[in-house]
Every structure is written in structure tokens, then in C-alpha cells.
Amino acid sequence: MSPLPHPRPKHLSLGPLETEILHIIWGLGSATVKQIHEQILANPDRELAYASVTTVLNRLTKKGWLVCNKKERAFTWKPLISRKEAQVLNSHEHLNRFLAASNPDIVAAFADSLDAGSVEQINAIAQRLQAVRRAREEQE
Q1: Does residue 8 sit within a domain?
Q2: Within this chain, do residues 24 and 77 fall inside the same structural domain, yes or no?
Q3: pLDDT digit string, tens, across residues 114-137
Q4: Which N-terminal residues, if any, form the signal peptide (predicted)?
Q5: Is there a domain that residue 60 lies in?
Q6: Quick check: 8 and 32 in contact, CB under 8 A?
Q7: What is the pLDDT of residues 85-125, one digit of tens each?
Q8: Using an 8 Å Cβ cutoff, are 75 and 68 in contact?
Q9: CA 39/CA 133 separation, integer angstroms
Q10: Which of 81, 103, 125 is the last residue of a domain?
């Protein structure tokens, strides 16, 4: 079972433009403000100031999603976690919020309403969790 990524972003919540820019960087691997700005403006219906892209990149860096490197005269931003790791974190956060806000009856009612494919998936998760716990106990 893969652990939660480390390091983790300090703030998981992202606005729509932050999310869009992060997806662009994941697609490119790393990017400059110019590359991101050009990609957003490739849509003729979009308008966005170059400075706005810089502001969002700085915010994503402060939140712990990106790291900025200076190459010669250009700044390049790279993701600190992969798209897949972000999905794991997002799923973990949603599950924790659901469990924290729900009592056992609500969780049971939710589980009872799942279709057969979802139940099979939950059973597979439970089996994997048991195997990981057994392996951990054998190591101790």
C-alpha cells in the first residue's frame, strides 16, 4: 500500500485557476510563466494577465504544491508531488471529512446503498488492508 506522499502541501484547497495551472505544469513536467500564460491564452475566449499567472504560481509555491528554480534569467516551476499523489491526498482528505462528519449509522447506510462493483472494490480494499497489517505485524 502506498503511503501518503511526503512532503505534503500545507494547504490542499485550490481555486479553479490554481488547479488549471497545476494541471498545466503536471502536463509539461516543469514550466515558466510564459509557457503557462501562452497555454492558457491558446483558448481565444480567455483573457489573463501575465502577472496573474505569476501571482498564482507564487501562491502554489507558498501552499507547498510547487518549487521554483531559477535557470539563467528565467524562473521555472516544478510540482513537488505528482498528479497521482495529489489524487491520493484528495481522496484521503474527502474520506477523513466524510468519516469525521458521519455517525456509524450514516456510514452503514451509505455502504448499504453501494452498487455491486463498489462493494467488490471495498472488499478488495479491506483485503489489501488486512494483508498490509499482517505484513507489518510479521516485521515487528
Answers
A1: no
A2: yes
A3: 777 777 888 888 888 888 888 888
A4: none
A5: yes
A6: no
A7: 999 888 888 888 887 877 778 877 877 787 777 778 888 88
A8: yes
A9: 45
A10: 81
